[in-house]
Amino acid sequence: MQQQGTELAQLAISSLEGTDCSFCADGELTQDTYKGNDAVVCDACDTPGAQFW
Q1: What does the DSSP assignment read for the chain?
Q2: What's the CA gap between 31 and 50, in Å, rounded?
Q3: Structure pTM?
Q4: Which is nearest to 31 in space by CA: 53, 16, 45, 47?
């Protein structure tokens, strides 16, 4: 069950990667980690668009 959750998180991250940040006007989401969690994080303001734990 844990592996299925990880696969779904990676699918969601891949889907969100490259989209515009909803918190600032300048950035886009890139695959990264945020506080130790898999995430997509804005490359301009460092705000996570989504994180999975």
Answers
A1: -HHHHHHHHHHHHHHHTTPBPSS-SS-BEEEEEETTEEEEEETTT--EEEEE-
A2: 10
A3: 0.85
A4: 16
| Cβ neighbours of residue 5 closer than 8 Å, sequence gap 6 or more | 52
Q: Model confidence over 22-47: pLDDT tens digits?
A: 999 999 999 999 999 999 999 999 99
How many other CB atoms are found less than 10 A from the CB of residue 25? 8
Bridging pattern class, strands 37-42 and 48-52? antiparallel
Q: How far apart are CA 23 and CA 44, in angstroms?
A: 10
